[in-house]
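Let us work through a complete example step by step.
Step 1: write down the sequence.
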Amino acid sequence: MAFAQGSRSGLSYIEEVTYGTTPAGNFTTLPFTTHSLNLSKDRVQGQDILSDRIPRIDRHGNRQTGGDIVADLRKGDFDAFIESVMFSSFASDDTIGVGTTLKSFSIEDALNDISQFRMFTGMAASTMAVSIAPNQMVTTTFGFVGSNMTTSGTGKTLTASSSNQPFDAYSGDLSIGNVSSATTSGIVTSIEFTINNSLAPTFVVGSDFTPQLEYGRAEVTGTITTYFEDLAFVNRFINETETEIEVSVDDPTGVNAYTFSFPKCKINSADASLANPQSRLVTSEFVALYNTAEASNLVITRTS
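Step 2: predict the structure and record it as tokens.
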């Protein structure tokens, strides 16, 4: 008897035209590291008081799908998910800012060695977390919220992903400074940021899965860790200085860069605790705010 192996698993997706409905067509293969996509159900229990104290009724209630897809970010393969989390689409100049249009997908989890397939529908990216640091690939976690899951013994026809290499922290730049005047900085040891749309299901009478998702504001927050070279970051926190942050990443080809621009930020902490005898560090949390010139709090630019 064969057991499903992680090394024989696969993920693929197709964009939905109607929310929660899988359209016809080939699915696109995803390069990924791990995922936690699953179906969950609420429990509905009877409340009768009985003399023997033993419950009689326990039923399944509202169902929803969700989970994380963790991957090494690279050119092209995750643009559809970036558009989903940004509620927008890349423009003709290869830039994207925060918008208001929900984009959902059907995502297939393939257990190829036992020919079993789980289909998740109505999946939209509620969050995207990016980690950029030396000696690692640019790690990205897409957090999905969805509607339903079905199973099948037959998988979808697949289109291969690109052959692009993952981004790393060595093939890019990071600039920090006053709004519209950021300059290259060499003292940053890591930057992590998250965009969160607070997606949630909207349940209705007559169905145990959501017909649509609701969403909140596009909250963009992050953390920068720098070597304690001077008081620049500490003073930005003390003085509540509006700050621009821009970080670009690339792969070893040097021609596939993605740039993440936070045109107006507030530095909300400057933790300079002493942890060990080695180099002192400053850990600063920031929030990205609406910038009039960009009409967004985050702008992503991809190489053509």
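Step 3: interpret the result. Residues 8-41+60-302 form one domain.
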